[in-house]
Amino acid sequence: MRYQISGKQLDIGEALQSHVKTGLDATVDKYMQRPTDATIVFSKNAHEYSCEASLHLSTGLTATASGKATEIYAAFEACREKMDKQLRRHKRRLKDHSRERSQPVEFAAADMYVLAADEDETEADGDSLAPVIVAEMEMQVPTCSVGEAVLQMELAGKPLLVFRNEKHGGVNVVYSRDDGHVGWIDPRNSK
Prior knowledge:
Belongs to the HPF/YfiA ribosome-associated protein family. Long HPF subfamily. By secondary structure, the chain is of the alpha+beta class. The protein has two domains: 2-97, Double Stranded RNA Binding Domain; 106-189, SHC Adaptor Protein (2-Layer Sandwich). Helices cover 32% and strands 40% of the residues. The protein is built from four helices and nine strands, in the order βαβββαβαβαβββ. The strands form two sheets. Strands 5-6-7-8-9 form a five-stranded mixed β-sheet. Strand 8 and strand 9 (182-185) form a beta hairpin. Helix 1 runs parallel beside helix 2. It is globular.
């Protein structure tokens, strides 16, 4: 597995790097995942250290976790515990579905835009509905089942996920609802 361990305005020593590698290796080996690479970023805000980790699995899923503490090692351990919980839930769900994916999740490229209203127009008109494109980037749209999409959304810690339904190839959306449940939008089923 490839590691990228860095610090935002922090010097990350060899001891911390080896601790991170052995800790993540133990977590990943426990659940027999096949990770391709891991990115770990440490930062400090006032007296509190923060650790953010992102683990890419060979199935196409990405698990992310973060932890905070007053000690840098404790921040990593808090992050590792969250990652451990996510991987445990992922493995349990895979067992529950009792089927193995013969091929990795396929991804297609899609443009993603961040829209924001122009401040000058909204102040002058008060009712302007013309947003301005602030950022343009590319994102990956996976082709998977609804259950796998929910799992990927939860592992990534995102509020929603756009995906192609592997049954019919149509674009679907799963999202976290305010009541704690997960919503699923399939435009093909609406009439």
